[in-house]
Structure of Ice nucleation protein:
Amino acid sequence: SLIAGYGSTQTSGEDSSLTAGYGSTQTAQEGSNLTAGYGSTGTAGSDSSLIAGYGSTQTSGGDSSLTAGYGSTQTAQEGSNLTAGYGSTGTAGSDSSLIAG
């Protein structure tokens, strides 16, 4: 399933769900769920979940969960859980949990 706004570039893998606002660049790999606001750049790895606000840059590895506010830069590695507020920069290592304001 792929839903995207105007001026966006999207790639949705097998059995994945991708929803993105305008002017964004998103890649949802196999079995992943990616939701992102406008002007954002995101990559959701296999079987991962990525939810991000506008103007953010996000990368979620396989089997990970990443939720981030606008204007943030986040990387959630394989098997990790990352939740972050706006304007933040964070990296969650493999099989870890990171919650940041």
Summary: The CA atoms of residues 20 and 36 lie 5 Å apart. The radius of gyration is 12 Å.
